[in-house]
Amino acid sequence: MAGEKMEEWHWPAGYDQNYLPDPGSPYWFPNRETMDPQERDAAVLERLPLVIQHAYDNSPFYRRKYDAAGLDPKDITTWEAFEQVPVVVKEELRQSQVDAPPFGDYICVPDSEIHHIHGTSGTTGTPTGFAMGRRDWEVIADNHARILWGMGVRPGDTVFVSALFSLYLGSWGAMSGAERLRCKVFPYGAGASGMTSRAIGWLTRTQPKAFYSTPSYALRLAEVAEQEKVDPREFGIKIMFFSGEPGASVPAVRNKIEKAFDTRVVDCGTMAEMTPFMSASATDGSPDGMLLWQDIVWHEICDPDTYRTVPYGDEGTPVYTHLERTSQPMIRLASKDLSRWEMKDNGCGRTYPSLPSGVYGRIDDMIHIRGENVYPTEIDNVLREISGYGGEHRVLVSRTGSMDEIKVRAECTDADTAEFEKAATSGLHRVVGLRVGVEVVAANTFERSEHKAKRVIDDREHTQKK
Ligand code: 8LH
């Protein structure tokens, strides 16, 4: 049996709710985190058929899918066999929830076990419902507590959760982990009118050690503090952990937040379906990008066409598999995001693979223009490094005849706008590889996002016939 050395490694998962590590230990579970990765992988390979069997036995969704593929969960005993397990895509989950409302026919626990219901806002399609089992919620909290410990959060620390507490799982997941870690949690929330301004008073009063939000929200908070003549460094925040969108691993965004708050930025996050979504997360000893905590969720980086794992060093799309969830377990969920993975010394002793540049963005958001692939995060990074940048921009993509055009409207403070325009034009040309038109607009022209930013307006379908 592989996994004998791994702390509390059993199926179904369950953790001693009174456990806390030795206060001097950098690790929550020293063996699980620092063991030989091949031994860990062998233990995961023993776990996978159990999770797949559970899904097959308890959900018509997975039974249909695997019967159609001629797949028997008992045969998933090699990595080659696992890579042939068909991926799950979000559209299938949405359809399943339309056909079998409200949670779809992939809910694998009895109704009496459901402890939390969550949902998405549905801004990019039909909303998705999440049903979390009681036992799963406890396990999720334990996993997140363990990862927060790895970031340097400790019992008794104040954790300020400043993200939406309605249709966003991020806040709930962060809160549950901090509670399990015996922190003092402030579920402050976000999104209601005047809340950002009031957050400044609460942050000054509570002096939290750790703070959670989206990167966009932290940038907004820094701006509002500046308008109100408060220095965000006075909040005393030591750790700012972010998820939900790219930013914490975008160098200029990260630097801006670290400088404004005099803090340490930590990137984390996969997808709401994959809660415990903090399974991809940096640590205090390995601050860049994210580590893939492979004994919580199995992360693969795959070729987006074949869904076969790409070698370390290569780019691809993250595909996720739960190892501990029993309610709505996801087996090879295709994220449709983009990233690159590596297996290197992480500096913190944990032997997990990593995403050194985090998750860059969604495949759908990548702009394909005149033979180039442009990531919106690259544009963000260029602009934020130029002095005089006003804090927001929009990327406009259009088509005239057969010619695609890309233009950036960027805010500039009262600095020299001609200088700013020149620096932005040449910086964007260098990084994007194309001539990008730059239009300078006044600071505060664009609405700020207090959740996830959306900056690209691709109008090519509408402008095609001109
Ligand atoms: C990210 C990141 C990240 C998420 N870097 N892109 O916050 C985690 C969970 C709760 C979440 O945001 O789930 P949701 O709303 O389903 O969105 C998932 C997408 O958000 C994911 O596919 C990514 O595109 C993005 N995302 N965390 C970059 N750290």
UniProtKB/TrEMBL annotation:
Residues 114-316 form the AMP-dependent synthetase/ligase domain. This is Phenylacetate-CoA ligase. GO terms for molecular function: ligase activity. It comes from Pseudonocardia sediminis. Keywords: Ligase. Residues 371-460 form the AMP-dependent ligase C-terminal domain. InterPro entries: AMP-bd_C_sf (IPR045851), AMP-dep_Lig_C (IPR028154), AMP-dep_synth/lig_dom (IPR000873), ANL_N_sf (IPR042099).
